[in-house]
Amino acid sequence: MTQQIQRKLSESKTARWSVLALVAFTMLCGYFITDMMAPLQDLLQTPVGGGGLGWSGDDYGKFTSAYGWFNVFFLMLIFGGMILDKMGVRFTGLMATCIMIVGVFIKWFGISHNFDGATVTILGTEWGYTLLVASLGYAIFGVGVEIAGITVSKIIVKWFKGKEMALAMGLEMACARIGTGLAIGVTPLLCKAFNNSISMPILIGLILLCIGLLSFIVFVVMDKRRDEELENTEEEAEEPFRFSDIFSIISMKGFWYVALLCVLFYSAVFPFLKYAPSLMINKFGIDPEWSGVIPALLPFGNILLTPFFGNLYDRKGKGATIMIVGAIMLVFIHFMFSIPALNNWVIALGLILLLGIAFSLVPSAMWPSVPKIIPENKLGTAYALIFWVQNWGLMGVPYLIGKVLDKYCITGYVNEKPTYDYTIPMMIFTCFGILALMIALLLKREDRIKGYGLELPNIKKPEEEAKIIAEEMIAEP
Ligand SMILES: C[C@H](N)C(=O)N[C@@H](CCCCN)C(=O)O
């Protein structure tokens, strides 16, 4: 009987696509805030007298890397994954969204006060109070948005398993990319509209996030209703999560290949995006005001392509192959960016568009592959562990690039601001791409050995599904 109700509910296309729209909107808001400071890097590094905050490249690197501080060092993400598997998607999602709001508020407070230029020394490095408070806020926000990310992945598996799961994940990522694209493209305009205010766009992000919270609350109501109709709770429906599950997850080679592919691939994209506006100014001679426009095309390209490749994976399979192709493209693109002679903006445009394809291929196949490797009751923890490994890269790589830029790449100063040669940073990104390719090949080999089904379609044919349901009804008289 339970299975029949479940079948009826899961057949409700409107319900599951509405759920997707609601949670994807919350993620859109989160991604908008994640990347909104990137196009302001130039202004942040402008001296205080010139209307900026007077940060160095190193300061900007510190701020950007703060995103991963608590997730990485205090294992907040892993705790978040365990909370997700224990408490369910509704509680965890609400908790994560509230954490995001608190974090953005603190970041806004830090940026909008100058603290009379006071500084403090932490672990041998000097921090301006503005930088420290803003970084703390960003670190708290990072915990919220990452836990929200794994929660939304689990929500999609819950509502879309055996259906258009990769398409749904692709669409959710497409919404996330709208957030990133708006952050890169619109933030400089917002900043300008409010008299070069850096804090005003953050305040607008905060308001947007509150609307994101409302959207998630509507999801909570729908999800609760669905579980009530099923006459059981999320927790009862699944084998409960045990602490020892962590060990069973980390003992799987397949898990490690996905986690390593994730950290290497994403380390060559998200941190790159943080520096892309500066790359456009320094290498391609683009006006600072327009420096976000070409990088903004990357997320906008993803908006169409990630669901497209997700849909392809749902119907035709070939997940492991899709990841390999994406990694090959990544190597090519970053290598081309590293060649100093290729400095025409048309080349930058072409490479960013290609990166848009690569950055659609890998995520559209990688995230929906995780439930093929890990059982559903451990999925929250597995996604959290993958995100945790990834956060080392998201935290460490911007910091590394900031250091490398200040130490090895300064070519001169214009209006007291350094100009950079981006050859070495782009070579570093190319190396990440090469390692990602090697791991993608190993993952395909592991799939052949273990039979995870990464090369198989996600959508089950009606006759296969009928067979599964019949078997389940026999098992549960
Ligand atoms: C940054 C975050 N840790 C991340 O990896 N986000 C992924 C999306 C993962 C969730 C897929 N349902 C991204 O590509 O933005």
UniProtKB/TrEMBL annotation:
<feature type="transmembrane region" description="Helical">
    <location>
        <begin position="293"/>
        <end position="313"/>
    </location>
</feature>
<feature type="transmembrane region" description="Helical">
    <location>
        <begin position="345"/>
        <end position="367"/>
    </location>
</feature>
<comment type="function">
    <text>Lysosomal dipeptide uniporter that selectively exports lysine, arginine or histidine-containing dipeptides with a net positive charge from the lysosome lumen into the cytosol. Could play a role in a specific type of protein O-glycosylation indirectly regulating macrophages migration and tissue invasion. Also essential for liver homeostasis.</text>
</comment>
<feature type="transmembrane region" description="Helical">
    <location>
        <begin position="131"/>
        <end position="153"/>
    </location>
</feature>
<feature type="transmembrane region" description="Helical">
    <location>
        <begin position="379"/>
        <end position="402"/>
    </location>
</feature>
<comment type="subunit">
    <text>Homodimer. Interacts with lysosomal protein GLMP (via lumenal domain); the interaction starts while both proteins are still in the endoplasmic reticulum and is required for stabilization of MFSD1 in lysosomes but has no direct effect on its targeting to lysosomes or transporter activity.</text>
</comment>
<keyword id="KW-0813">Transport</keyword>
<comment type="similarity">
    <text>Belongs to the major facilitator superfamily.</text>
</comment>
<keyword id="KW-1133">Transmembrane helix</keyword>
<feature type="transmembrane region" description="Helical">
    <location>
        <begin position="198"/>
        <end position="222"/>
    </location>
</feature>
<dbReference type="InterPro" id="IPR011701">
    <property type="entry name" value="MFS"/>
</dbReference>
<feature type="transmembrane region" description="Helical">
    <location>
        <begin position="422"/>
        <end position="443"/>
    </location>
</feature>
<dbReference type="InterPro" id="IPR052187">
    <property type="entry name" value="MFSD1"/>
</dbReference>
<keyword id="KW-0458">Lysosome</keyword>
<feature type="transmembrane region" description="Helical">
    <location>
        <begin position="91"/>
        <end position="111"/>
    </location>
</feature>
<dbReference type="GO" id="GO:0022857">
    <property type="term" value="F:transmembrane transporter activity"/>
</dbReference>
<dbReference type="InterPro" id="IPR036259">
    <property type="entry name" value="MFS_trans_sf"/>
</dbReference>
<feature type="domain" description="Major facilitator superfamily (MFS) profile">
    <location>
        <begin position="19"/>
        <end position="448"/>
    </location>
</feature>
<feature type="transmembrane region" description="Helical">
    <location>
        <begin position="15"/>
        <end position="34"/>
    </location>
</feature>
<dbReference type="InterPro" id="IPR020846">
    <property type="entry name" value="MFS_dom"/>
</dbReference>
<dbReference type="Pfam" id="PF07690">
    <property type="entry name" value="MFS_1"/>
</dbReference>
<keyword id="KW-0812">Transmembrane</keyword>
<feature type="transmembrane region" description="Helical">
    <location>
        <begin position="165"/>
        <end position="186"/>
    </location>
</feature>
<feature type="transmembrane region" description="Helical">
    <location>
        <begin position="320"/>
        <end position="339"/>
    </location>
</feature>
<feature type="transmembrane region" description="Helical">
    <location>
        <begin position="66"/>
        <end position="84"/>
    </location>
</feature>
<keyword id="KW-0472">Membrane</keyword>
<dbReference type="GO" id="GO:0005765">
    <property type="term" value="C:lysosomal membrane"/>
</dbReference>
<feature type="transmembrane region" description="Helical">
    <location>
        <begin position="254"/>
        <end position="273"/>
    </location>
</feature>
<protein>
    <recommendedName>
        <fullName>Lysosomal dipeptide transporter MFSD1</fullName>
    </recommendedName>
</protein>
